[in-house]
Amino acid sequence: MNVSNRKTVSAAAILLQALLLASCLLPVRPFDEQRWWAQVESADPALLYAPHREDGRYFNPWMPMEKGFRDFLRWQLSERTLYAPEEEKELLDVLLDLSDRIRSTPGDFIAWIGHSSFLIRIDGAYWITDPIFSERALLPKRKTPPGLSLDVFAALPGKKNVLISHSHYDHLDSESIRRLPADTRIYVPLGLKALMNGLGKQDVVEMDWWQTVSCGDRCQVVCLPAQHWSRRITQNTNTTLWASFLLVSSDRKIYYGGDSGYFIGYREIGRRYPGIDYALLPVNAYHPRWFMYYAHMDAREALDAFRDLEARYFIPTQWGTFRLGDEPVGQAPSALSKAAQFSDTDPARIIVMGIGQLLPLGSRDPK
């Protein structure tokens, strides 16, 4: 990290500590789940295809975001959602020797590196989603180490491919991108190519929602909508796009949801791209609901998205590494288990991976 970045992080850390010292000044704001559900249901699906950039800024035309920095400050100055001590202490074990298991596993697989970073091998090609190997995502510090080192990933044979969903620091880590092999091909939403070039990566494919590009023989990448937003210290709010992706090969389809709130787009994606095998969907940073509801999904909404996509299996992402909301980093499995019972979801279709776990995809039924 260079000197200017260290100063920026230090200033941000001081501000955050001041906010934390002043916390608990405001009560928890109530949230009307039924009203939110009605708002989602009333959105016009045609707007998923509408223009989504105006005056240099991107937006979600089916439901523009209303939350802003003032709401963030209120969250920081509010009472925190309370959890049991055992929930607060629950952390994931990291499985060792992933590199050895990669070498000994034939065929396709999905391996979890941590947070939203997954290593995927399809038809001999390697893909990684939103790689972050750094100790911090700007401010939040890792609770668990990565299940694979960046050096091991770089040493894997063949060309590497990366999917970047948006510009937030827990999904776009500059140091990790900079250290990738120079010939890594990187797929990004609109507006992020210049940043990738500045980090030393020239093989960059910039994509808009609903755009499909070839990634080789019998391989396609589809850029799809998500309900989120973007900002970095060096970039203004929403000057770059956010997205989810569908990776299509001759044998299977893998959907990577990036970061998103629940929205009508999941139904349209499931309708347009039937037969999704694995849906990698985020379950993190959902408390407090009054602040997080628009851009993040809780366990129930993640299962609703899984149902809308009509995918065969659901793999939860974006948990277990960084504490970004009020909820503990290890809460996702228990929250999903409860939500699955409530929604009558077959638990066999939910694959909760461990950090460093490798899931072979040779069989149509990974169980």
Can you offer a commentary on this structure?
The protein is an alpha/beta fold and 367 residues long. It has a single domain (86-360), classed as 4-Layer Sandwich (Metallo-beta-lactamase, Chain A). It contains twelve helices and 15 strands. The chain has helices at 3-21, 33-41, 69-76, 85-89, 98-104, 150-155, 174-179, 193-198, 265-272, 289-292, 299-309, 332-343, and strands spanning 53-54, 57-58, 109-114, 117-122, 125-129, 160-163, 185-189, 204-207, 212-216, 219-224, 244-248, 253-256, 278-282, 313-317, 358-360. The protein has a seven-stranded mixed β-sheet with strand order 8-7-6-5-4-3-15. Helix 9 (265-272) packs parallel to helix 11 (299-309). The longest helix has 19 residues, at 3-21. It is globular, with a radius of gyration of 20 Å. The mean pLDDT is 91.
Number of strands: 15
Largest beta-sheet characterization: 7 strands, mixed
Q: Low-confidence spans: pLDDT under 50, at least 5 residues?
A: none
What oligomeric state is this? single chain
**Rg on CA atoms, Å:** 20 Å
Identify the CATH architecture: 4-Layer Sandwich
Percent in strands? 15-25%
Structural class determined from secondary elements: alpha/beta
Q: What is the fourth-level CATH superfamily?
A: Ribonuclease Z/Hydroxyacylglutathione hydrolase-like
User: What is the helix/strand order?
Assistant: HHEEHHHEEEHEHEHEEEEEHEHHEHE
Query: How many alpha or pi helices?
Result: 12
What is the strand and helix layout of this fold?
Layout: H1 3-21, H2 33-41, E1 53-54, E2 57-58, H3 69-76, H4 85-89, H5 98-104, E3 109-114, E4 117-122, E5 125-129, H6 150-155, E6 160-163, H7 174-179, E7 185-189, H8 193-198, E8 204-207, E9 212-216, E10 219-224, E11 244-248, E12 253-256, H9 265-272, E13 278-282, H10 289-292, H11 299-309, E14 313-317, H12 332-343, E15 358-360
Parallel strand pairs: 5-6, 6-7, 7-8, 12-13, 13-14
Antiparallel strand pairs: 1-2, 3-4, 3-15, 4-5, 9-10, 10-11, 11-12
Helix pairs in contact: 9-11
